[in-house]
Amino acid sequence: MADADRERWDARHAVAVAADAGVPAPPDALRGRTELLPPGGRALDVACGRGTVAVWLAERGFTVDAVDVSPVALEAGRELAAREGVTVRWLLHDLDAGLPDSGPYDLVVCQRFRDPARYPELAARLAPGGLLVVTVLSEVGEGPGPFRAPAGELLAAFGAFEVLHHVERDGEATVVARVNGRSSTSARR
What we know:
Strand 6 (162-169) and strand 7 (172-178) form a beta hairpin. Strands 3-2-1-4-5-7-6 form a 7-stranded mixed beta sheet. The protein starts with a helix and ends in an 11-residue tail after the last strand. The chain has a single domain, classed as 3-Layer(aba) Sandwich (Rossmann fold), CATH 3.40.50. Helix content is 27%, strand content 28%. Mean pLDDT is 88; it is low at 181-189. With 189 residues, it is an alpha/beta fold.
């Protein structure tokens, strides 16, 4: 990622931190379906931003690695984790260069970061039986854009997994899937 991109994200996170310290929260795709979470283990939060999901996972007993390109976002995450009394391993990493070489993980979360070249890497970081939770901006209900996934992109990338939840609407696409299974039309909502 170019320095200009990192600076843009730092500036954006600095404004957000100034306005709101943040509170731990589940990934959007798991709201109302937290029963899908594994009982614990290792978790990877890709493009973690200010760490609200990473801290929420740590509060639930996961050993969490949280990755982002923005030092400002990671510092906000560190402060949130300290305030909540949990430990998260914060990794400064340029995701345009790929995911950090780590894993396997029982849970991989990627929220609002879309790079189809990273999809195989997300899948490869999962342990057998691991859960993948991905939400990206979508063209469905919103129209095309440089950061928006076309209809069906997430199912094409992860449809070989057991799909527990999938939705595309209102400018977002989400998939929640488990390794070692096949997708089930009845499981999609």
